[in-house]
């Protein structure tokens, strides 16, 4: 598939192994690493949460990612068309449909809204945010005032989406791969600069102590395990169709186990580094580490406002968040684009515009619902449209889709999957037995637990 052609032409492939790994890692490294991960660390006792998170990532996240890569490369198709290409029972295409609807449309529709916030906060770092953020209360008022301006929120959502569309228009090589080769190194540089500033603040030692020393009493709290399961699973972009899509652009010379390890490793590294950038500063400035999901847009601006050079630190932090959001958003956009190209035989440019407009309209509902209707009632609770879509995707679509993927690979398509993981015997995979056990038993049981507990929230 060329960058401007339908599915009749040869499928485009990644230009290099490094480009693919950076793109896959970029899809996993998103708002969840820099926004949600630190909040959960603060909520669950610091290093204790990190240790549990790492164990779960190895036992659950990696096996599922490897399964999705195998499906994509074997099929060389989008998630929806992949199962037809594998010549299996048509029922299994529900996995592709769920991933495409959840990732390519629903998640991306509200992801763009939050991505737009990062642009607004980059600008605001120089135009009033630091003055307003002198205390946490004033910082909260600034955020409330911003999301209450519906036209402004929609505008920044559209700007953010336009960036993602522009990158995806270039295709895999000239668009996504090239963008990731620029943004991913910059992302690492920015987080290292923020760490250097944070750990040198007076009183930063308390934050490092909190972050690095486990509070073993937290192991008795069952919510720690639920949070760690959810964060690992969703941080790796599993169940969204991304890894199937990206895998479909791979040749047989790529070692899938190695690619999965690099992707999960870089994703986890950024999440851990974000903690080193955030917690020393939070403690040094006298704020609470478990400040909730408002940590990013309310607490941290207040931290930056009290910090020498806080304006520039604030700008760099939200630029970091912007890069993380874009690398994930363009991955989700590629899922929708590939679907449209293959389903409707569209040129890439037409598919990007069609899907982009649909997603912008969906995102508009999320933007408008932050300060008024529409509201949706789910399990007896009234939620704005953004929260409702987030709830349905994270607690229904992703767990069910990934559970089905595990069942499919583990019990229906196991032998072809094993051949795919070794590139038809070209490479050895000494962990095949452990992977098989995880994808057939451990990962499905964990996903069922996430699904059950998620619906009980």
Structure description:
It is a single chain. A two-stranded antiparallel sheet has the order 1-2. Strand 1 (375-378) and strand 2 form a beta hairpin. The termini are far apart. The chain contains 19 helices and two strands. The protein has one domain: Amino acid/polyamine transporter I (Up-down Bundle). It has helices at 17-28, 31-43, 47-75, 79-85, 93-124, 129-132, 136-147, 150-169, 171-199, 204-212, 222-235, 242-247, 256-284, 299-305, 310-344, 348-369, 385-412, 414-421, 432-455, and strands spanning 375-378, 381-384. 74% of the residues lie in helices and 2% in strands. The protein is an all-alpha fold and 457 residues long. The protein is globular and about 60 Å long.
List keywords for this structure.
single chain, 457 residues, mainly alpha, Amino acid/polyamine transporter I, two-stranded antiparallel sheet, 19 helices, 2 strands, globular, disordered N terminus
Helices and strands, in order, run as: HHHHHHHHHHHHHHHHEEHHH
Task: Provide a count of the helices.
Answer: 19
Q: State the CATH architecture.
A: Up-down Bundle
Portion in helices: over 70%
Could you give the count of β-strands?
2
Strand content: under 5%
Q: Structural class of the helix and strand makeup? A: mainly alpha
* Span of the ends, CA to CA: 43 Å
Question: Uncertain spans, ≥5 residues at pLDDT below 50?
Answer: 1-9
CATH class descriptor name: Mainly Alpha
């Amino acid at each position: 598939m060329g960058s401007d052609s339908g599915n009749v032409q040869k499928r485009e492939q990644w230009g290099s192994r490094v480009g693919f790994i950076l793109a896959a890692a970029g899809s996993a490294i998103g708002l969840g690493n820099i926004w949600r991960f630190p909040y959960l660390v603060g909520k669950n006792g610091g290093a204790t949460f990190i240790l549990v998170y790492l164990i779960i990532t190895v036992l659950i996240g990696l096996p599922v990612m490897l399964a999705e890569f195998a499906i994509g490369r074997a099929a060389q198709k989008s998630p929806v068309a992949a199962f037809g290409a594998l010549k299996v029972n048509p029922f299994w295409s529900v996995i592709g449909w769920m991933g495409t609807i959840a990732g390519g449309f629903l998640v991306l529709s509200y992801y763009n809204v939050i991505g737009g916030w990062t642009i607004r906060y980059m600008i605001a770092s120089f135009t009033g945010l630091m003055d307003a953020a002198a205390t946490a209360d004033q910082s909260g008022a600034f955020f409330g005032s911003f999301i209450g301006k519906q036209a402004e929120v929609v505008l920044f959502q559209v700007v953010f989406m336009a960036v993602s569309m522009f990158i995806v228009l270039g295709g895999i090589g000239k668009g996504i791969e090239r963008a990731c080769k620029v943004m991913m190194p910059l992302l690492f540089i920015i987080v290292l600069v923020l760490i250097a500033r944070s750990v040198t603040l007076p009183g930063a030692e308390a934050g490092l102590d909190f972050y690095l020393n486990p509070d073993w009493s937290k192991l008795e709290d069952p919510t720690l395990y639920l949070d760690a399961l959810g964060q690992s699973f969703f941080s790796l972009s599993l169940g969204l169709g991304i890894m199937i899509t990206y895998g479909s652009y791979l040749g047989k010379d790529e070692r899938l186990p190695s690619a999965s390890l690099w992707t999960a490793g870089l994703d986890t590294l950024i999440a851990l580094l974000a903690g080193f950038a955030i917690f020393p500063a939070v403690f040094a400035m006298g704020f609470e580490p478990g400040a909730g999901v408002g940590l990013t847009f309310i607490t941290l601006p207040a931290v930056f406002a009290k910090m020498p050079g806080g304006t520039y630190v604030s700008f760099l932090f939200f630029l970091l968040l912007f890069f993380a959001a874009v690398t994930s958003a363009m991955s989700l956009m590629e899922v929708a684009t590939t679907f449209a190209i293959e389903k409707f035989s569209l040129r890439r440019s037409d598919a990007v515009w069609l899907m982009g407009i649909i997603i912008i309209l969906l995102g508009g509902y999320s933007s408008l619902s932050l300060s008024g209707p529409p509201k949706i009632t789910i399990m007896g609770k009234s939620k704005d449209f953004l929260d409702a879509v987030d709830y349905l995707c994270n607690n229904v679509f992703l767990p069910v889709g990934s559970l089905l993927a595990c069942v499919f690979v583990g019990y229906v398509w196991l032998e072809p999957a094993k051949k795919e993981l070794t590139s038809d015997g070209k490479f050895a995979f000494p962990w095949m037995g452990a992977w098989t056990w995880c994808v057939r038993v451990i990962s499905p049981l964990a996903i069922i637990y996430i699904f059950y507990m998620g619906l009980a929230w």
